[in-house]
Design a protein that fits this description.
The structure is a single chain. The protein has 435 residues and is of the alpha/beta class. The protein folds into 4 domains: 120 residues, 3-Layer(aba) Sandwich (Rossmann fold); 124 residues, Transcription Regulator spoIIAA (2-Layer Sandwich), CATH 3.30.750; 120 residues, 2-Layer Sandwich (Transcription Regulator spoIIAA); 55 residues. A 6-stranded parallel beta sheet has the order 2-1-3-4-5-6, with helices on both faces. Strand 1, helix 1 and strand 2 form a beta-alpha-beta unit. Helix 9 packs parallel to helix 11.
């Protein structure tokens, strides 16, 4: 066994935090006796590429990554997995050099498919029909010693007119509380201080087990070792008063909420088939801000949805401008095959979509600067990360402000109380240690 030459395997992830969480889990399926894990920038015997397909640009990035690794190591075994592989397996298999294509469920069985690692004459494709699948694949990330992403839910029963996620990941499903508590304890044993609860539609947690997100969080905060829990993203219609009040009362639940908005026009929200109005969204934001004045509140917004007139866009802009938000994630609309929006009339010109996106990005920058200035002079707890950049160590406050401090290796992985001193030249929050 000592003479066994281990194969080198590299992993590359595109897309959302859920994908990164799942890649971490998939990587643990590769036996350390048989495989040596190396960075994707190095030559490897096996490349596993976990893909995203949320936009045309995401598809393009996936194809570019696949071709880059084939060029980097022409004799390597190339496995392409995930959402793009689920939705367009034939498109991927047509790329010369691809050996294995696995859908969103099959990627968790990758060890079974790569028992024979050798180049194929033509790719193997394994991608199941998701419409009737209740399979939940547990995942949590373990690569970062400071925080871990814990997958609590997958899939979505919503049918938003622009979204391919239900097509790629199937209907809503979740782990039960007991199994998630077990995973959280395993994370705690690794010395990780923060857990980020992640999924496709985490507010829907408990639908398949007759439990609730609030019940889960109440149990999680009782686990010793984990000091912080962060909610990744939650639909406004599923963000309950009870959950907001729980976050306000319990300091282990971080005062950070990311709430998808998509549009400030009720007419466009209707075309998007969203399940709330602008009024409900504003009410949720105002309740958070009233309960937690310095909470970080982010929102997603889509620019250039079909049928969005200039008046609709200006309504969205004015709506967001008035709200006490901390930042925006701005998406330029991208029509996806198989969605209702693909066939909608009133397409917005590409240059106009870009103009609207840039205007929203500028608004986001203004909102974020204002939020950081509002926090200046206040104290906060920062979880410092391992990365060193330009002589500085960085980390996040509970309300999701990236802070920086002169590098000290001993701070990595620690939660330290700081005073926020103001925006640094790098755009981060300059902080001073209190203890």
């Amino acid at each position: 066994m000592n003479n066994l030459i281990r194969k080198k395997v590299a992993f590359h992830t595109l897309g959302c935090k859920l994908n990164f969480t799942e890649t971490s889990t998939i990587s643990r399926l590769f036996s350390e006796v048989l495989f040596e894990k190396v960075p994707a920038s190095q030559k490897a015997d096996v490349y596993v590429i976990n893909t995203c397909s949320v936009t045309d640009a995401a598809d393009k990035k996936c194809r570019q990554a696949i071709k880059r690794f084939i060029h980097q190591s022409p004799d390597a075994f190339i496995a392409v997995v995930g959402c793009y592989a689920q939705l367009k397996p034939q498109e991927i298999s047509s790329i010369p050099g691809v050996d294995l294509v696995l859908g969103v469920n099959e990627k968790f069985d990758i060890a079974d498919y790569i028992a024979r690692i050798e180049k194929r004459e033509k790719p193997e494709i394994h991608s199941c029909e998701l419409s009737d699948s209740d399979r939940f694949n547990p995942s949590w990330s373990a690569g970062d010693r400071t925080r871990s992403f814990l997958k609590i839910q997958d899939g979505c029963d919503y049918n938003c007119s622009y979204c391919t996620v239900p097509l790629a990941r199937g209907r809503s499903k979740n782990a039960d509380i007991a199994s998630l508590l077990s995973e959280a304890r395993a994370i705690a044993q690794k010395g990780i201080k923060e857990i980020v609860l992640t999924g496709v539609n985490i507010g829907d947690f408990g639908k398949s087990t007759d439990e609730s997100l609030t019940e889960l969080i109440k149990e999680l905060v009782r686990i010793p070792g984990v000091e912080r829990y962060r909610i990744s993203s939650i639909e406004p219609n599923l963000l309950t008063n009870e959950l907001i009040e729980l976050a306000c009362r319990n300091e282990r639940i971080l005062p950070h909420f990311h709430i998808p908005l998509q549009s400030g026009s009720n007419r466009i929200l209707g075309l998007m088939r969203r399940r709330y109005t602008g009024e409900l969204f504003a009410e949720r934001v105002e309740m958070i801000r009233k309960s937690m004045p310095l909470a970080g509140i982010g929102a997603d917004v889509i620019a250039g949805f079909p049928g969005e007139t200039e008046a609709d866009f200006e309504e969205t802009y004015a709506f967001i401008e008035k709200l006490p938000l901390s930042y925006l994630h701005v998406f330029t609309f991208s029509a996806r095959p198989g969605t209702i929006a693909w066939d909608l009339h009133g397409k917005v010109d590409h240059h106009e979509k870009e103009r609207r996106s840039k205007k929203l990005i500028s608004l986001s920058e203004s909102k974020h600067s204002g939020f950081m200035n509002q926090n200046t002079g206040h104290t906060a707890d920062v979880l410092f990360e391992k990365t060193r950049s330009s002589g500085m160590i960085t980390g996040f406050t509970g309300n999701y402000i990236r802070a920086e401090y002169p590098w000290q290796a001993k701070l990595a992985g620690q939660i330290r109380k700081v005073t926020m001193r103001g925006i640094s030249p790098s755009g981060k929050m300059s902080v001073e240690l209190i203890d």
